From TrEMBL:
This is Cyclohexanone monooxygenase. It holds the Pfam family FMO-like. It comes from the Eukaryota. PANTHER family: FLAVIN-BINDING MONOOXYGENASE-RELATED (PTHR42877:SF7), L-ORNITHINE N(5)-MONOOXYGENASE-RELATED (PTHR42877).
Amino acid sequence: MAIPLSEKPDEQDIGHRHGHQVNGHADESVNGHGQVNGISNGTTSLINGNGLTGHLDDGPAIEIPIRETPMGTTRPFKVIFMGMGASGINFAYKLSRELENVELTIYEKNDEIGGTWFENKYPGCACDIPSVCYQYSWQRKPDWTHYYSGSKEIWEYFKQVSDSNQLGKYVKLKHRIVRAEWLDDEGKWKVTVVRNNGRDPDDTFDDYADLFIHGGGVLNNWKWPEIKGLSSFEGPRLHTANWDEKVDLHGKKVLVIGAGSSGVQVVPAIIDQVDRLFVVARSPTWITAGFAPAYAGPNGANFAYSEATKQRFRDDPTFYLWYCKAIESELSVRFKMIVLDTPENKEARAFSLQEMRRKLARKPELMDKLIPTDFGVGCRRPTPGNGFLEALTHDKTTVLTENLQEITPNGFIGPDGQHHEVDVVICATGFDTSFRPQFPIISNGRNLQDEYASDLVGYLGLSVPEVPNYFIFVGPYGPLGHGSLVPMVEAYTNYVVQVIKKMQVEDIKKIQVKRSVAQDFTRHADRYLKRTVWSGPCSSWFKAGSVSRKPVCWPGSRIHYLSMLQTPRYEDFDLEYLSGSRFNFLGNGFHAREYDGRDLTWYYSLLDGQDKQPESFPPPLY
Ligand SMILES: Cc1cc2nc3c(=O)[nH]c(=O)nc-3n(C[C@H](O)[C@H](O)[C@H](O)COP(=O)(O)OP(=O)(O)OC[C@H]3O[C@@H](n4cnc5c(N)ncnc54)[C@H](O)[C@@H]3O)c2cc1C
Ligand SMILES: NC(=O)c1ccc[n+]([C@@H]2O[C@H](COP(=O)([O-])OP(=O)(O)OC[C@H]3O[C@@H](n4cnc5c(N)ncnc54)[C@H](OP(=O)(O)O)[C@@H]3O)[C@@H](O)[C@H]2O)c1
């Protein structure tokens, strides 16, 4: 039976209920305080051996049988996780190590795991975060080939992590989630899945879970540009995120549309192959130095690790950790660059300006078009562009800084009305970054898809107000704008694992962020973000898919975010309990450790670090 949360979020405490039945107690409902339907009769509660049978201060008699299991018992719990990219892999690993009695199913639409690094195979695709910071803290690879790694090597790393930890058993490949609906009475998500692209009518089925986690990636829904005639092009038309490796660019006339991070990587990677290159770069953008340059090669360039260095990393994990920490520290302090008018912000701008002018010197007419004047470095995601500007100034390259008029069957009509023939069109035009779910997510009569048309209300980049038992990895107002996403994914996981443990042990049926809290958080974030370059007048995917919208980044540094996520703030949530009493999890008066062999005097500290009751104790001593 449905137990709605209070309609007055500001006033509500945990688990208020109005006139609804709680788990088999047919005619009464209780809130977490044992109040019944807000009726006050001024009586006092009594607790006898069989349960709550007396009267509470302001409620009539209620009877909630005591749960005859020890406190600390983990109830069976099912999680459905969407996507087996970096987020899904991390979640599966942690779940297998840190949770018990939890069934996990990860639905992955692709025929391989790896997400971003499986899908993006365009020439030059690489991490611009140093390799040693783009890996899990719990499984470091000592033998990265390069300081910045290519897409293939990163995918191989994730695949190896998954295989070596037997995480494949949780994953159903070629299974696309197409709908999710919260069933309030049951306290479950009903998730509709289509397998094998739905070739067979029986390929659509429903699965049910206590918790639904969206790990489908914000950069996973690639999009074609809106350009007249695009589909009329008769030659190969590629998108960077949907690359066809069979297309040979050697000796071809090629049009690249887009100068975001993908365009900046693909252009220098193909310049030596193509006969003629046209690049559409319609908006100014800061091309910066590589991230964490202090440890990079000369002038911030990529380099290959020597065998001796890799061996040292293998032999001396402490040294390797020290090295990783040095680079991660360099990345993390970069947030000062994002804050307006800081010395770091000014320095980054001055440096990038000087570098862009130097590199565009062969085609000075491009400076006015490509160098931003009204927004700072980092407004759009900084794009370390090794070789990009050099490729633009190459003799065989034509840069178009306005919109194309049209794509034709064999070429395109440029901004000046001239037709150019090309053999291949490459769209480096990015993704739908609106955060709008790609399928209906229904809860309490709302479809989340409808809420993304206007300004978003977020909560710590990981949840949505008043949507029960639902978390997003890499959601709005998360740390989108700087540094490696992998430590963030670990932080999301640790947070959600804590929530699951609590739900299991404390018999929580429903947990959802209060709207008033999310609004308060969003107002704070919006106010703070005005201090950052992200709010500048640039087009960027941090603005929830539209240039004119506000940025939806975390209002602070990475360290600030990681600290915030360490412990869930349960006061920000509404909770509902399976039994109707928030204290029924106290159970039969014993703790699970009194039955399961754990140390009964753990509070004295552990012998040999093991939480296990010693098999014997010393004999009496005199
Ligand atoms: C080209 C490129 C380069 C990048 N470089 C960096 C970088 O240098 N540093 C950095 O920190 N980040 C980088 N990123 C961001 C990168 O996306 C994240 O770092 C990280 O890989 C995200 O992992 P994820 O698991 O959250 O999402 P993803 O890797 O996007 O994985 C999501 C998974 O969910 C699956 N999925 C989606 N919808 C459904 C559905 N309906 N049903 C079932 N499955 C579904 C997808 O198939 C996919 O496998 C880059 C992104 C791109 C596109
Ligand atoms: N690690 C890396 O090096 C790396 C590499 C690739 C991607 N990424 C991640 O992925 C994100 C997305 O990068 P992305 O480059 O794929 O997408 P993006 O940053 O959104 O860039 C898309 C580009 O396409 C252009 N574009 C879109 N429609 C167009 C049209 N109709 N005509 C002309 N140009 C058009 C955009 O121009 P406007 O700006 O004018 O709209 C922009 O230059 C990055 O920010 C980053 O987070 C990282």
